[in-house]
């Protein structure tokens, strides 16, 4: 199957999970989602980032590795499409913004050790959403610990993603800015994604626009 393992990436509040749920139903695909709500450190991190950043990122690292290693490898036995709301490198992006230099050095080594055998997606679709829209989405979904997120933090996260993509031209990354506030439930946008996945994309970052 062409483009069998698809991951969607994007900033906090981009709408990745809603879109992935809808596309999984549309494609009858195997879906796996980030289990962030089970992380006991997340609310504490937003209250005291310096104290809780390292345990937060390490716990996310362990959860993501366990899930990707289990789910993707099991599904490799079959021909069905796999769709996820995060990519294996997500941990590196966020840890690079929350950890100090020494902590990040340890973290990066652990990430390399764990993820060297984990399959990467055939295509990652990065959902570029302006910060103003992200803040509206965050407010709308109503998670109390997210309500005071600094817009500059969101800017820094997106910069982290784009810096990473520049450093990894071997990966296939499609950068898309969806039109409309409810694109995750929009039939036209999902049809646009269908069209994107019909192409054989060369490695690198590709900026694509919805007609």
UniProtKB/TrEMBL annotation:
GO cellular component terms listed in the entry, alphabetical order: cytoplasm
Domain Deoxynucleoside kinase: from-to ranges: 6-188
InterPro entries in alphabetical order: DCK/DGK, Deoxyribonucleoside_kinase, DNK_dom, P-loop_NTPase
UniProt entry keywords in alphabetical sequence: ATP-binding, Kinase, Nucleotide-binding, Transferase
Molecular function as annotated in GO: ATP binding; deoxynucleoside kinase activity
Lineage: Bacteria, Pseudomonadati, Bacteroidota, Flavobacteriia, Flavobacteriales
Taxonomic source organism: Phaeocystidibacter luteus
Pfam families: dNK
Keyword match Kinase: yes
Protein known as: Deoxynucleoside kinase
Binding residues for ATP: 10-18
Active site annotation, chain numbering: 80
Superkingdom of the source species: Bacteria
């Amino acid at each position: 199957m062409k483009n069998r393992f698809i991951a969607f990436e994007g900033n906090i509040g981009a709408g990745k999970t809603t879109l992935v749920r809808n596309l999984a139903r549309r494609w009858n695909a195997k879906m796996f989602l980030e289990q962030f709500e089970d992380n006991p450190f997340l609310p504490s991190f937003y209250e005291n980032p310096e104290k809780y950043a390292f345990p937060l990122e390490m716990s996310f690292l362990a959860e993501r590795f366990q899930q990707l290693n289990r789910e993707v490898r099991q599904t490799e036995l079959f021909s069905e499409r796999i769709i996820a709301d995060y990519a294996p490198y997500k941990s590196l992006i966020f840890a690079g913004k929350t950890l100090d230099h020494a902590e990040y050095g340890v973290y990066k080594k652990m990430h390399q050790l764990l993820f060297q055998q984990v399959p990467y997606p055939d295509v990652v679709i990065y959902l570029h959403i302006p910060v103003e829209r992200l803040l509206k989405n965050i407010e709308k979904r109503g998670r109390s610990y997210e309500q005071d997120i600094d817009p500059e933090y969101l800017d820094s996260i997106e910069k982290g993603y784009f810096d990473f993509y520049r450093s990894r031209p071997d990966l296939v990354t499609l950068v898309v800015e969806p039109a409309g506030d409810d694109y995750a439930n929009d039939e036209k946008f999902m049809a646009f994604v269908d069209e994107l996945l019909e192409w054989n994309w060369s490695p690198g970052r590709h900026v694509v626009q919805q007609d």
